[in-house]
Amino acid sequence: MLIAGICTCLGVGFFPAPGTCASVLTCLVIWLCEGVHPLALLLTLLLGLWSTQHYLKQTKTKDPSCVVIDEVMGMLVTFLGVTLSWQKMLIGLCLFRVLDITKPWLIKRVERLPGAYGVMADDILAGMCSMFFLQIGDYYV
Known about the structure:
Blueprint: H1 2-7, H2 18-33, H3 38-59, H4 69-78, H5 86-102, H6 105-110, H7 115-140
Helix pairs in contact: 2-4, 2-5, 3-4, 3-7, 4-5, 4-7, 5-7
């Protein structure tokens, strides 16, 4: 029960469009907290790997849609070190979701890593790409 609660983010993973719901809720938390603390990133990574690995073993699944702690991790990475505005939050959310859903080249490749590593890695990389684009936008705008 604890494992499922963590990796589904207290049941958000059972909402319709679970990845998008988790991403939007994470954006709201980031906005309310006025940014991303690196310790939140580390804690989410460790809890995500641990709970997801156990959940995958228990359910004998590969990457169930109800596991959304990876989306939380991806959103945290997206906004790490980014000066927040509602416009950047919206752009970052859209960038992350497009990259997470379409999984271009390298993002698709890291998804093939075994177990929880693959589940988490593609979202981390999508978050890194999204953060990069947001940072480029900050530099040139």
